[in-house]
Amino acid sequence: MIRSMTAFARRESQGEWGSLQLELRSVNHRFLELNLRLPEELRLLEPKIRERLNQRLGRGKVDCNVRFQPPVDQPGELALNLELVKKLAHASREVDALLYNASPVNSFTVLQWPGVLQPPRLDEGRLQGETLALLEQAIGELNHNREREGEQLKAIILQRCDGAEEVVQAVRSRLPEVLAGVRARLRERLGELQAALDPQRLEQEMVIAAQKLDVDEEMDRLETHLVEVRRVLESDQPVGRRLDFLMQELNREANTLGAKSADSETTMASVELKVLIEQMREQVQNIE
Question: Angle at CA 148, nearest 5°, toward 53 and 32?
Answer without folding.
Answer: 30
